[in-house]
TrEMBL record:
Alphabetical list of InterPro entries matching this protein: DUF6924
Annotated organism of origin: Streptomyces griseoaurantiacus
Every DUF6924 domain range: 15-144
Short name of one Pfam family: DUF6924
Protein name: DUF6924 domain-containing protein
Amino acid sequence: MRTLPRAEDDWPPILVIRTDFRDEEGWRAVRAALDVPWVLDEDDSVKEEILFVEDPAWADAGPAEILDALTAPGEGEGGEPAECGWRVVFLADRAGMDHEKPSLLAVSTDPDEETPSFRVLARVTPHEMHCNLTLANMDFFEFEGWDVEELAESS
């Protein structure tokens, strides 16, 4: 059975799950892009801790499979699925293994989210999303479309 970690504190690391194992160079590009901090101003930047799941058992897994693994049935109140602790998880899938502008599929862990997933650039946006969602400064849907122009240029 495939399993994923649960967040164990109020400020979990960014969770990136690799689901494509065909392109090592593309994967290195994704990791390098994630290494770029989110610059708030000339004196301040944010670089969140990242937890990488690089298990080939997750090859070609989609958002539904990931969300099923993150929420174990019957562990929450009243037999409801337990919350996994993350507001968003990121999939490093085949579509994101672009060597020039690597991207990730951002997936909301909220089952009621109207737009449950969308693509973001691996550079900076995951740090900004994770920080703002963990602080509850913004909602998941507010990030949709942030990287559309840059992503379109790389297609």
